[in-house]
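Per your request, structure below.
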């Protein structure tokens, strides 16, 4: 039998672990919040840095690199300047804000693809060569024209909704070889498949390449949040994560529209999303958190604040089971207001 002191120390250990999740991005947490930035979906998009002044988002996904291997970038009103004599965007304000966001414990990745654009690879060689280009232009490599100057991104996201499925495994493999050349920081690979399983464009790649995070779009499809629990198919993605994924510790995010106007259908309000999130968190260890499209929509509607309030440590109930000795549920006090003596 564990003593009251031992149980208290265990609770404290859990609290300290959760503080790590709260203060900075930790891919192993189940309370991360990712949101896309760059398409001004709500028509009131602010500078990137404005969204990093608080602790709401953990991951900012820059949208989009909607043309490749001939690079085309589109960040709406966030960046409209180009390099002299080129159509390639040059975004010094975003570059400055990337660094600021990273200094606040967030990660910033760039999304390749999107619902519209001209993208895709001819073959594995084409994809591998483009991975070199991406490393040189957006990470620790060198290129004569870097859209974000000396800012170094934290990873890439594949939001592939068109074109062929050629080369993506080779692209990821080559890019991860570049990642490995820089031990000074951790880099990530993410994807944003539609919820029908398997994904029409990335299905084979998801089975053959390494992914750290998968932002499943549970909207605009029969398996969306609005169909919970009947057709909501998180179970399919959890099964993939544990049995088919190359990375058996991959984290699945519940992708949600940031407001009713952010998707054709699939939006649910904050209370409903909170209930779904809590149900999934109780059942599946693959959960990484929530993703929204997009930050301007989620901030305007209030959904972003609702998500963070639900995922905040002051709201979390941690179930602790000590095999054969004790089972109970403890509500964690607000850590920002508590001292060790409060426990």
């Amino acid at each position: 039998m564990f003593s009251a002191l031992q149980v208290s120390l265990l609770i404290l250990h859990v609290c300290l672990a959760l503080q790590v999740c709260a203060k900075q991005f930790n891919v192993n947490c189940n309370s991360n919040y990712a949101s896309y930035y760059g398409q001004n979906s709500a028509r009131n998009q602010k500078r990137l840095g404005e969204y990093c002044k608080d602790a709401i988002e953990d991951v900012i996904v820059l949208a989009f690199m909607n043309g490749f291997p001939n690079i085309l970038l589109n960040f709406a009103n966030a960046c409209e300047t180009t390099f002299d004599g080129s159509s390639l965007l040059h975004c010094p304000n975003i570059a400055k804000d990337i660094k600021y966001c990273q200094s606040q414990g967030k990660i910033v990745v760039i999304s390749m693809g999107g619902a519209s654009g001209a993208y895709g690879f001819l073959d594995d060689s084409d994809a591998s060569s483009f991975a070199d280009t991406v490393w040189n232009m957006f990470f620790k490599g060198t290129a004569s024209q870097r859209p974000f100057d000396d800012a170094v991104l934290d990873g890439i996201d594949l939001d592939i909704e068109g074109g062929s499925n050629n080369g993506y495994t080779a692209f990821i493999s080559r890019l991860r070889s570049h990642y490995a050349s820089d031990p000074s920081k951790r880099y990530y690979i993410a994807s944003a498949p539609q919820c029908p399983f398997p994904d029409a464009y990335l299905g084979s790649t998801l089975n053959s390449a390494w992914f750290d995070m998968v932002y499943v779009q549970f909207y605009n499809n029969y398996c969306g949040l609005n169909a919970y629990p009947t057709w909501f198919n998180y179970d399919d993605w959890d099964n993939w994560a544990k049995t088919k994924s190359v990375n058996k510790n991959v984290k699945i995010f519940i992708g949600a529209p940031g407001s009713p106007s952010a998707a054709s259908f699939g939006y649910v309000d904050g209370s409903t999303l909170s209930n779904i999130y809590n149900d999934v968190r109780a059942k599946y260890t693959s959960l990484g958190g929530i993703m929204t499209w997009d930050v301007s929509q989620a901030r305007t509607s209030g959904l972003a604040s609702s998500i963070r309030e639900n995922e905040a440590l002051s709201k979390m109930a941690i179930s602790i089971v000590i095999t054969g000795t004790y089972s109970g549920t403890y509500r964690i006090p607000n850590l920002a207001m508590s001292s060790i003596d409060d426990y």
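The chain has nine helices and twelve strands.

Regards,
D.
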